[in-house]
Give the backbone structure.
Amino acid sequence: MVTCRRCPRLNAWRREAAAHPPRRFANDTYWAKPLPAFGDPSARVLIVGLAPAAHGGNRTGRMFTGDESGRFLFEALHAAGFANRPESVHSGDDLVLSGALLTAACRCAPPDNRPLPGELDNCREYLDRELALLRRPRVLVALGRLAFDACLRAFASAGAPLPKPRPRFAHGARFRIGDDLLFATYHPSQQNTFTGTLTQGMLRSVLRKARRAAELDRLRRVRG
């Protein structure tokens, strides 16, 4: 996946961003490649964002690392018991996720943080494969509407029966899809966090519910 070149616009943009960093990152060496998932490979909880930030994940080489969205997200992940520390600074900072895998619907930084529909389609394979590798029953947490739609497509690609009517995005929503669960929350973008649309309490609540759901489903399976 890190060698993927399917999207010419994204391929050019992430390299352009790396070649012209803001002054505060002028001495940094940018990752400037598609981003792999980060976290616990044996997790039952998959947290799905939209795409790396041009000077966040595209710079550091780790999902949600090096920008304000990531700072907000990792603080909540730590509070919910998924992370061993409340901040993610760079790929060598000894941060560990336990019980959760962090990924995105689009693996390259897009202009204006908005991947095109065709670019999301090009990335579908990677999310589909990650979903297939997760231990069951699985719990997905979608960060934002576009990530929510990507999760539904991944379930459909796996042959899971989607509820009718089709689930609609809403913060705090929870849907049972076959044996799996899908939770939704607003994306931790500055547009949402700075305006109070998404607070730490709101995000932590969704993450804690996802963690409890994964633990309860696992225990039910063990007990038969």
